[in-house]
């Protein structure tokens, strides 16, 4: 079996030892990128073993993204810059789970947060949650902090960086290091000054400085730490997915990419509830029948959004 | 075509005029109950025309449930009781979209909110959002307000109601009028006293009173009003679904229940953004290619949870 | 003794029956205006009896203003207009206790709130609490809701009202009916249309409408109700002030205006704690000595701000 | 002139060089303790020069306490323990400015916060802000994090520490190192294990551990940093107080302790507004007259609480 994070092990085995790859009982993949690569393999007919996409399980998504990033954005900014959040104008590019977490945390501490989005549904959510939805161009000259969490590339270009105001903090909470075009800042007229681990001042000829964190890499990994509780959720999910693929009767999983069965997602959650002294209510027989549910779950249809 | 809310028109036509039912070009259904009945028809092979479940479109779900109930719970409680929210101990049964909305609103106004849940995933969300997850039995004697939003029946029984403290407000934000067992209160030893439209005091022999709103029916409908913005979202979604079913080339929709195509869900959202002066960012060609997306959407996989 | 609200009884007695006025044992005054008039009497040497300013007691200030208005602004807007708060752009003029309450409530429900202020300290508080501090002129064309809570007059003039956008809601949470220059709207080219109790549309020749609540009078009184809990706090404070003035040994209070003794303020608070099942911690002898406090209070110096 | 923080310089000069002390033009003191000592000197008639209490200026109080601690509690806990805040049960002892800041921040990040108080007014504020007011005894066995901010001593005793649950984090945001009776933990049966700078595990014979930060000293100083913005506010206030005492005409300040004149407090605030691009509204002549205010301030009576 393969427990992968990014798809490199999967692709290495497939390329180097295709025979052995075909004998793999199952693949469990936990990253966005790895999952993307699995779906591509599947499309092109090269995925010859069952694979489980645990990246999109509910508990994993919410804990690795929404709940964990809600805290790590604060931690990363404080550890590196000691900035005061109150009253700061912050732009958050992308209002997915990570963007939602960052926005909520910073708003809760008195920052004035705006959001950019490409997806009208997420944009409408931002409105309802009390954030202005703007284009980066409109606010680039006035913001104090710029945070990317889009999963996209070149969201912040040199042209934007040129227009940021003196002292603006720039960081990436999204994926890999492509969201901010940091390479475009490696030009002779700009001076890079390392002021502390993971913190660089980039100085324009007129004296303007921006504060770049982790050279545009992920600050939640570079400048913060992952709480053990989040690690526990992720590891439990991976372990259960491995067990499921290993124990599943022949034919349950074919040569395709699967989401974690909802019942296991619920099981991961239930294992972590005692930590909060949370007490679940049980359905009576009568209620279960009324709802058409098994008393032990799963409790929701697959398309349920939580 | 049928535009239905609850499934009564659909079932009436099916029963009374089965021949005419078979000529229907499509059904658009917007309620939980109606959708449930459609899936049952489909399972039993009796659904002979395509149907669209708009109840589970993102915009409809969030606006009719999360965002709208977040406001209507406050409105319903104020209009009927003038209760002050600050410091009140509130129990919310059910942490789905409606429960999430109610909890957030009441917490925001200084109430101390606890939650009951049957689903461990929703329970873990409640923990992360700062709510204690308890059983009704544990807090029944201390709460000031009890709100049901479970979609279930007999969540609050006579035995619970007997133990509520004097002056407790009881109301239902869930579905139909089954969540609170109001019928169990129609016994000779209890006195019902109507104090105002939609507000009744139920008086125990020892003088204890509870304040029952709308006789256990939905307070968001009985004691509040639906903002025109929410009506606009819902009506737009229904109209687009009707147009889609009407215009779809033969074969796109079979005799089954469909979710609204994501692109139309996004279109509904985009039509409502100008209301907030929200400005969407557009993908560059390069970015669209990088993400593997069409620049016009849809922007998310079907299983995305928002 | 005189229990006054606004100062009318006090001034009437002083003018009509000056002899009887001199025999009054004490005056308790609970309004801003009445207190203002008392201080003027005192300055001009006409205050011949002790008076107690209960308007500025902590519990009264916070409950009548901050906590009560936090809820009544929502109530007043919903009962009159059914407006959805999420995503709305709201301007709140004045960031005193009332403005703080209104801002917090509306932000909590997803509105995007800006603030105007004349006092740099309150303005800085608004920044730290996450609100943009602007001038009315800067945002007058884009806001959806305009709320005054300044205690000042003509904060919103005809010139502002002319520039508001179509559909803007205008209301007053401040004092009397002077904050919005409603009189300036009584001109022939504007049409007033009463759409419901306390709600008028004012229509410009080009068809633009603004929605004026309670003709510019206080919406927290006209369009909402005061929770019994707030009434209890206020009434208790007044009663204790009367008792104090009546029982005080000769010489404790002279011909001047006094704030409620802090110990009585604390006593009012302590009487209302059981309502929330709140349990106070008691100082040990050792701790009281360390802090230089009496174990029964008062617990704070007079200049403490809470 | 003396610029003091804690009163040591003042008392040293007074004791060692009393003649020189009498020639001092003024003292500016910024700490609670130093102010306390000044008031004691004044009471006992030993204060022979004017002193200014800048600790109780509005901007200093709010920024050093409320706004700064709101951020530093998060920073201190994250840097030392990487704890996840979501769902954690936190007890905050003391609901003064520091306690208010800590509670707000942790609640905003999904912690379930309770509060202890000795003062019924602050306790009622905690209720209205949505926190349960409890005694430490009632929750000592269930909390995950215990934070003191009382200004008192021995608020957390050995007896409490014995009953905390395994893994509980204990820290002090109050004053000096007396709030938690750390000395009582220096007994042979307990093992102290340093796990990292400022973090010690204290291990009971049954294996239970508590996590003590900074050995009970102030974590906002030991485990976090003070934002430069807060330093700027404080330093500006001190400098202005020195200038005021130096320039004041003879007789304005006598041998007593004074609060910073409100106009200077407002001036400090106004100097920091441009940082947030905040735009103050100016009173018209007519409005200033109506309010009985000078257009340049001060804008509030001395007893105003902000």
Automatic annotation (TrEMBL), chains A, B, C, D:
<dbReference type="InterPro" id="IPR000043">
    <property type="entry name" value="Adenosylhomocysteinase-like"/>
</dbReference>
<dbReference type="GO" id="GO:0005829">
    <property type="term" value="C:cytosol"/>
</dbReference>
<dbReference type="InterPro" id="IPR015878">
    <property type="entry name" value="Ado_hCys_hydrolase_NAD-bd"/>
</dbReference>
<dbReference type="InterPro" id="IPR020082">
    <property type="entry name" value="S-Ado-L-homoCys_hydrolase_CS"/>
</dbReference>
<comment type="similarity">
    <text>Belongs to the adenosylhomocysteinase family.</text>
</comment>
<dbReference type="GO" id="GO:0006730">
    <property type="term" value="P:one-carbon metabolic process"/>
</dbReference>
<feature type="domain" description="S-adenosyl-L-homocysteine hydrolase NAD binding">
    <location>
        <begin position="65"/>
        <end position="226"/>
    </location>
</feature>
<keyword id="KW-0520">NAD</keyword>
<dbReference type="InterPro" id="IPR042172">
    <property type="entry name" value="Adenosylhomocyst_ase-like_sf"/>
</dbReference>
<keyword id="KW-0554">One-carbon metabolism</keyword>
<protein>
    <recommendedName>
        <fullName>S-adenosyl-L-homocysteine hydrolase NAD binding domain-containing protein</fullName>
    </recommendedName>
</protein>
<dbReference type="GO" id="GO:0033353">
    <property type="term" value="P:S-adenosylmethionine cycle"/>
</dbReference>
<dbReference type="Pfam" id="PF00670">
    <property type="entry name" value="AdoHcyase_NAD"/>
</dbReference>
<dbReference type="Pfam" id="PF05221">
    <property type="entry name" value="AdoHcyase"/>
</dbReference>
<dbReference type="InterPro" id="IPR036291">
    <property type="entry name" value="NAD(P)-bd_dom_sf"/>
</dbReference>
């Amino acid at each position: 079996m393969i427990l992968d994070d990014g798809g490199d092990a999967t692709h290495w085995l497939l390329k180097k030892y295709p025979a052995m790859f075909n004998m793999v009982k199952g693949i469990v993949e936990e990253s966005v990128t790895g999952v993307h690569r699995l779906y591509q393999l599947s499309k092109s007919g090269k995925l010859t073993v069952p694979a489980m996409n645990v990246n999109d399980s509910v508990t994993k998504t919410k804990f690795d993204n929404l709940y964990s990033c809600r805290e790590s954005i604060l931690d990363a900014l404080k550890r590196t810059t000691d900035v005061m959040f109150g009253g700061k104008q912050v732009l958050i590019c992308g209002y997915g789970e990570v963007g939602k977490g960052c926005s909520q945390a910073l708003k809760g501490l008195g920052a004035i947060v705006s959001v950019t989005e490409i997806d009208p549904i997420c944009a409408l959510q931002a409105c309802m949650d009390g954030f202005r939805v703007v284009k980066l161009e409109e606010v680039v000259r006035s913001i104090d902090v710029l945070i990317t969490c889009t999963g996209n590339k070149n969201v912040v270009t040199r042209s934007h960086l040129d227009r940021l105001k003196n002292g603006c903090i720039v960081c990436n909470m999204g994926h890999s290091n492509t969201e901010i075009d940091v390479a475009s800042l490696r030009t002779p007229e700009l001076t890079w000054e390392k002021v502390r681990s993971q913190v660089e001042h980039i100085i324009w000829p007129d004296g303007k400085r921006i504060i770049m964190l982790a050279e545009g890499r992920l600050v939640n990994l570079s400048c913060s730490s992952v709480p053990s509780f989040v690690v526990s959720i992720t590891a439990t999910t991976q372990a259960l997915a491995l067990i499921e693929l290993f124990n599943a009767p022949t034919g349950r999983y074919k040569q395709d990419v699967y989401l974690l069965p909802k019942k296991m997602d619920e099981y991961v959650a239930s294992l972590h509830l005692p930590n909060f002294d949370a007490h679940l209510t049980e359905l009576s027989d009568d209620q279960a029948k009324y709802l058409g549910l098994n008393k032990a779950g799963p409790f929701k249809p697959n398309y349920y959004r939580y």
